[in-house]
Amino acid sequence: MSENKVAPPALRCAACGVSATAEDFRSGCPFCGSREPTHDPFEDVTISLNWQECRMLAEFASQWAVARYKATRWTALSNTLDRLRRVRPNGAPALTNADTAREMPMMEGAKRRVTLSPEFPD
Ligand SMILES: [Zn+2]
Description:
Layout (H helix, E strand, L loop, with lengths): L9 E3 L6 E3 L29 H19 L4 H12 L11 H20 L6
Helix pairs in contact: 1-2
The chain binds zinc ion.
């Protein structure tokens, strides 16, 4: 009855996202070594959020991580924010204030290029 065997429950690393058994995670993630709490994939949920709601949660989480944890537990949150950044709607504002600040030089450069060299479009 080997076809009826149940696979051992897999857990997912909060830092890198790799899945492995609880035994594999006994002394940290077998892939990245993170010792952050693992995620149970059976607890995954699918929800619908407006981008502005994502921005609000991301900004508060980022600020809280720095204020409360001095960014020592940053990897899991950082990876979650990266997953959100990948689904940013076209033309929507950046996810966090820090992202907006990082994008400013690019936006300034694009504006300057258009303003100073309108006769030489890219
Ligand atoms: Zn990992």
